[in-house]
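haha ok so turns out i had the wrong file open the whole time. this is the CORRECT one, sorry everyone. sequence first:
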Amino acid sequence: MLARAFIALLLLLPCTAAPAAAAGDARVAAIQVALLHRGLYAGPIDGIAGPGTRQAVVALQTRAGLARDGIAGPRTLAALGGHAKLGGRVLVVGVRGLDVAGLQFSLAWHGFPSGAFDGDFGLHTDAAVRRFQTWSGLGGDGRVGPATLAKLAKPAAACPLRLERPLEGPIGSPFGPRGDRFHEGVDIVAPEGVGVAAAGPGRVSWAAWRGGGWGELVVIAHADGVRTMYAHLSRIEVRLGQRVGAGFEIGRVGATGEASGPHLHFEVRVRGAAVDPLTALR
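then structure:
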């Protein structure tokens, strides 16, 4: 009853501007995924119960012949394929459902995205679960039960270091949900050829082209398990193993790899978990 009331309250709340780093609710995200797959929702999978989500719920209720109140109660959830709350069953490879979509959303906000939010516990989700379990000190068996859910209920990782901005410019795409996926860094828009600086002192652990959309990439290993990543560069100006200080120029802004225009894709990872770079920058 409490879970139903909570979801009902979320779906009735007015839409407010949320900070880029504010995680939405995993149950609302799961509902958005199911609505998206039914062609009723076109917004981002952000877990924020704004007017777009409520309108999509009403459209589903109309289609299913239910009361058109915009509230995702038991009958509406049944029409969507089940309960959105995590913990009702152990999740393993091969299962599908709202709870899997909620799991994918929670994993992403903890720094371990699994690709598209689709409610399908496939190989990508399994890999993300195992990485998160290992990162959290669990066995990494890929089974999502009480121990894994307890870790997901804790706050996401935070960067233990204060970092400098690698360059000045507006944020074109923030950390967080983007469409039906999760953006693991921030895109800083700047003209091609502008210098990119190391965000802190460390050692260059990658300085070359990297597939998967990265293009020309520099990775710097810092203290306390922190790594910063600088992608889509037009030119790399450091070498593997080189020691650099904060502010040292490591390359130039470009659009290599999968980039729609010149910008720097900047990531911060803590022992492998992606964290919002804006929370670490001075």
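The chain is about 25% helix and 20% strand.
again sry for the mixup
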